[in-house]
Design brief:
By secondary structure, the protein is an alpha/beta fold. The chain contains eight helices and ten strands. It has helices at residues 13-29, 70-76, 111-128, 151-161, 180-186, 207-216, 256-279, 293-298, and strands at residues 52-58, 80-85, 91-97, 132-138, 142-148, 192-197, 218-225, 237-241, 248-252, 284-288. Helix 1 packs across helix 3 and helix 3 (111-128) packs antiparallel against helix 4 (151-161).
């Protein structure tokens, strides 16, 4: 399994700079806008709402004729104009999970590293589109970061997501669903909300909370997964340690029946999450920590 030094940042400053350059280069070479929420990642992270109709009122001299409300005019017999609110500035709110279950990796990197990389790509793309970026980093505690439209203002969020791992505290990390109400108040109205997590503690009972998030924001979930969480390779006896309790178990991966049961259980778990998010009207996509994160984001539909 992947052994990551607790003193080493998940992503170095040089890696963050390289990610920013990759996003900017892809943005420059994009020949046509992509009609997906992720187009995202390299044009505009969300579709936006344009000018928002606020009210109607009697026509006044100087009003733009294009904003006439012809139906209201016909009904009342008096010229009527539409009144619009100024277009809201687009913003991105990121929830980045770094809790113990994310500190696992059997191939290339930890899931927490992939989550930090994903957050950086989305944040850099949002900044390039002149959008504001805010978020919360969920580890041993929840760290909230206010929105910013500048690189300097966004870096504290990204550095917290990529900071060295530290599990010395004895306190149990907060549950993901415990943050939903706080996020609803912290995220700006009209924000695009992206949850980057393995969803290890999300269950059927959370459907109402998930639906509430999806109804308030243009939301999406990027579920970070390690290939060993779907299938076990036959590699003899291995020792597994729970990141939450510290309890350890030794299993024999050469046991074909065990591997089959494991794969079936994990497939059912994935299906349950997919159905839960579907019922909650919350788009769910899976990203793997052993594949190129930037490439996976561009392929999302």
């Amino acid at each position: 399994m992947h052994d990551h030094s607790q003193q080493q940042a998940l992503l170095s400053t040089a890696e963050l700079e390289q990610l920013q350059q990759s996003v900017l280069q892809r943005r420059q070479h994009q020949t046509r806008p992509l009609n997906t929420p992720y187009a995202g990642a390299f044009n505009s992270l969300h579709r936006g709402h344009g000018m928002e109709l606020h009210d109607v009122r009697p026509y006044q001299a100087g009003d733009d004729i294009r904003h006439m409300d012809w139906r209201a005019t016909a009904r009342s017999g008096k010229p009527t104009s539409k009144v619009f609110l100024a277009e809201r500035q687009r913003s991105l709110f990121l929830l980045i999970d770094r809790r113990p279950s994310m500190q696992f990796g059997s191939r290339v990197e930890l899931k927490a590293t992939t989550a930090a990389r994903c957050a950086a790509i989305l944040a850099f793309a949002a900044l390039a589109a002149r959008e504001r970026v805010a978020g919360v980093v969920l580890g041993n505690e929840a760290q909230f970061f206010s929105s910013s439209q500048t690189l300097a203002g966004t870096l504290p969020l990204l550095r917290a997501a990529a900071a060295p791992l530290n599990n010395t505290t004895q306190t149990r990390p907060p549950a993901l669903n415990a943050l939903f109400e706080k996020i609803s108040h912290a995220a700006e109205r009209g924000s695009s909300l992206t949850l980057i997590s393995d969803l290890h503690d999300i269950h059927e009972c959370d459907q109402a909370a998930l639906f509430n998030i999806a109804s308030r924001f243009e939301s999406m979930v990027l579920r970070i997964t390690d290939p060993a969480e779907e299938h076990l390779d036959a590699c003899g006896k291995i020792r597994l340690v729970s990141p939450l309790t510290g309890n350890s178990h030794i299993i024999d991966t050469n046991n074909a029946a065990l591997r089959e049961a494991y794969a079936k259980t994990m497939q059912q778990r994935r299906h349950t999450l997919e159905q839960l998010c579907l019922r909650s009207q919350l788009p769910l996509h899976t990203l793997y920590n052993h594949r190129d994160t930037l490439q996976q984001l561009t392929q999302l539909q």
